[in-house]
Specification:
alpha+beta, globular
Length: 493
């Protein structure tokens, strides 16, 4: 699919008539005769084409006076793949809005992070999405409110505060306007909590576009898990989260049609940010059909994709953390990298309490690592210099890695640091910054897989062959890695 799909009326009508779930989140259908907006896969009888208008976002539908369908719940559909595929102003702004920046810092804070004026940001968002940053953030607050209303017994006043509303009245008015129900009615209609519900734990379902192959996704996260920060337990990947208002613990369980998510938060205001970061880590907003169609056009990749379609790129919930771990993993085994990271966590991580007992710390923040005596780090001198330079620049703000990062600019800044070569920079671009086209032609596992498949195995020749895979080369890396028997490629037992 392409940018501005909502303007292609004929394509949108066909997707709605086919109830094609692949397009959920790409566009929204507003029905003129009912005043309701839906996702393309809504199970109700499709409206007449003349009664449908199409919008690029839920916020645009709400701005136009439409309310969310109670049947298909369009506000809960997967996000548009565009925001993770692109690195332009609109995509970077959308990633920041999902990360709660507008609620915490306002539109001026959003614009400052992007390096543009507030007028430029508002104009571009309005032109492409039909809604400005305040309306987009409001739509996200409404979704957060609905989640809390339906999944917790919290009083409505606490929910209003946690969802980011400035007053109870604004909360009530927004919920009625968006869902055509009062908050108390939403709660009455919600399914009853299942027996054994744990107080303080939020149980959510994270949707995705099918297919999704969980093997390398959860296998990678589990095989590289840092003790104390991450673990695999009872069929779920668990880890601690450093969040804007506090900390959290999440357990993510792969299911056939969703990812089960259990969140424990020290401050409920962090709910939308925690969800956004978990979705990003698991690459849940990807369009696997588009990825696999393009990669499958290569005769040598096609059998890998046909065997196990829907591979995702395992990413991270904390870009700075991943950059540190990438340095710790330079030229050592997965086990050695985990050992180095575990030592840092024990010595400098922030302790947290885990009701289930397996997790003990947040990964150390750059500020904490920048204060460490370099001589206390048990690693070669050159890697010690690489690590200390990285954390110092992250701590003082001269290097910033975040959802809003310009991928090429971040690459250039990382390459300028001592000890950073193309492999380290591109693995950070792929797994921390989210560049779907990051490629690792010098990686030994990639070169070995390429040789076995009959692809060119030298970096230059493989890069030339991989030009046809763009902009999805990071996904090609996952398929190539999966030819190996390394634990990262298998769902833990």
């Amino acid at each position: 699919m392409q940018k501005g799909m909502h303007t292609q009326t004929e394509h949108c009508v066909r997707a709605v008539q086919a109830k094609d779930a692949r397009f959920d989140g790409w566009f929204y259908t507003a029905v003129l005769t009912t005043g309701i907006y839906c996702r393309p896969s809504c199970p109700v009888v499709a409206p007449k084409p003349g009664n449908m208008v199409f919008h690029p976002s839920a916020a645009a539908c709400q701005q136009a006076g439409f309310r969310a369908c109670k049947r298909c719940r369009p506000d809960a559909s997967p996000g548009s793949p565009e925001w993770n595929r692109r690195a332009d102003l609109v995509a970077r702004a959308m990633r920041l809005i999902a990360d709660g920046v507008v609620d915490r810092e306002g539109v001026p804070g959003l614009a400052a992070r992007l390096g543009y004026s507030t007028r430029q940001v508002e104009r571009q968002l309005l032109a492409e999405l039909g809604a400005g940053p305040l309306a987009l953030a409001r739509a996200q607050r409404a979704q957060t409110a609905r989640l809390l209303i339906e999944t917790t017994p919290l009083p409505m006043a606490e929910i209003a505060f946690a969802a980011g509303f400035s007053s109870i009245r604004t909360f009530n008015d927004t919920v009625r306007e968006v869902f055509a129900l009062a908050p108390s009615e939403l709660r009455t209609r919600a399914p009853r909590s299942t027996p054994g519900h744990t107080p303080g734990v939020l149980g959510l379902r994270l949707p995705f576009r099918a297919p999704l192959n969980p093997d390398n996704l959860f296998g990678h996260l589990a095989a590289t898990a840092v003790p104390g920060v991450e673990e695999w337990r009872d069929g779920a990947y668990r880890r601690t989260l450093r969040l804007p208002y506090g900390h959290g613990i999440v357990a993510l369980t792969p299911k056939p049609d969703h990812i089960g998510c259990r969140l424990t938060l020290s401050d409920l205001r962090d709910l939308p940010v925690a969800i956004s970061r978990c979705r990003r880590m698991l690459d849940l907003d990807a369009d696997p059909v588009a990825v696999d169609e393009q990669l499958g056009a290569d005769d040598l990749l096609a059998p890998l994709i046909a065997k196990a379609p829907g591979r995702r790129v395992p990413r991270t919930v904390d870009e700075a953390e991943f950059a540190v771990r990438a340095v710790l993993g330079q030229q050592v085994s997965t086990a050695a990298a985990r050992t180095h990271a575990a030592r840092l966590v024990t010595a400098h991580g922030e302790p947290v309490e885990d009701p289930e007992g397996g997790l003990t710390h947040l990964f150390p923040a750059p500020e904490a690592l920048a204060a460490v005596d370099p001589q206390s780090l048990a690693m070669p001198r050159t890697r010690r210099t690489t690590l200390t330079t990285l954390v110092r620049q992250l701590a003082d703000g001269s290097l910033h890695l975040g959802v809003e990062s310009d991928w090429e600019e971040a690459r250039a800044r990382l390459l300028a640091l001592p000890g950073f070569g193309p492999w380290t920079v591109d693995v950070i671009a792929m797994r921390a910054l989210g560049d779907p086209d990051a490629f690792l032609p010098t990686d030994l596992g990639i070169r070995r897989a390429a040789g076995e498949l009959g692809l060119p195995s030298t970096p230059a020749a493989l890069t030339a062959r991989a030009a046809a895979w763009r902009p999805w080369r990071a996904y090609a890396v996952q398929y190539l890695w999966a030819t190996d028997s390394h634990p990262i490629n298998f769902l833990p037992v």
